[in-house]
Design brief:
2 helices; about 10% helix; disordered N terminus; mainly beta; twelve-stranded antiparallel β-barrel
Length: about 260
């Protein structure tokens, strides 16, 4: 990694660690209903503050030997501005091992303006992505719109979330299905973090993952947390793409944040 990027990553890790420590140490009123909290944790448009750590293991690739590992830190911060609910989400990815160069990967930031409706809620806003470490002939920045909606019925939560990123040599759209079933006592089954990605320059989908996420919302020392495991298979059989992916997640949940 170059000097500025390395310093940026180190500062991000330090700030993330400080935020996590403050979130754990700060007293707050915990929700008694873990079912409601589990439902919010499965909803990307919910005004729920969370600090998320995720490790992704890719044990196999399509048409390519080897494996890979990556880490991710994500902060979700709800706030009000312009008389409207907002959700700011920042995601930092780091490549631990595999065929891709190790170190800091993409950093994504979006702000979603959220509007409640009788049937649920919808949101829209800008999304931007920084791509450090790429060669000089490729974009290092892309931006575009994000939009999504979520509704619920009984134990079901369903919806869709779409992000679009455009630059000089980037034109991609991702579609994330939102589907979760609350099993009770904080347990849930969901579609997970599957991102169906289309490259408009190639005119094809470059990722078509399907999977299931098993999660549990509980408490540790009075702090609400969510554990999850999310195996996933990529239906897009193209050399070099991940075939199987397993994500392990841990979230600190801050109701009323």
């Amino acid at each position: 990694m170059s000097g500025p990027v390395e310093r940026f990553f180190r500062q991000g890790i330090a700030m993330g660690s400080l935020v996590i420590a403050l979130a754990v140490a700060t007293p707050h009123v915990l929700a008694d209903d873990t079912e409601a909290l589990a439902r919010e944790a499965a909803d990307p448009t919910a005004s729920l503050m969370s600090l998320n750590l995720r490790y992704t293991r890719i044990p196999s690739f399509h048409g390519l030997d080897g494996s890979a590992g990556a880490s991710q830190f994500q902060a979700v911060i709800p706030f009000r501005a312009w008389g409207t609910s907002n959700i700011l989400r920042s995601t930092v990815n780091y490549t631990n091992s595999g065929p891709a160069p190790g170190g800091l990967s993409d950093v994504t930031i979006f702000n979603l303006l959220v509007f409640d409706q009788p049937w649920g809620r919808w949101g829209a806003g800008p999304v931007a992505q920084l791509l450090p470490g790429r060669d000089g002939d490729s974009d290092t920045f892309a931006i575009g719109p994000a939009v999504g909606f979520v509704a619920s019925s009984g134990r079901w939560t369903y919806g869709v979330f779409n992000q679009n990123l455009f630059g000089d040599d980037i034109a991609i759209s991702s579609l994330q299905p939102v589907l979760a079933y609350q099993m009770g006592n904080g347990w849930a089954l969901a579609a997970g973090d599957a991102q169906w990605t289309r490259d408009w320059d190639r005119g094809e989908f470059v990722n078509l993952p399907v999977g299931v996420q098993l999660s549990k919302v509980t408490r540790i020392g009075g702090q609400s947390v969510k554990w999850s495991i999310n195996p996933e298979y990529n239906l897009r059989d193209r050399q070099g793409l991940p075939e199987w992916t397993i994500r392990l997640g841990f979230q600190l949940l801050v109701p009323g944040g």
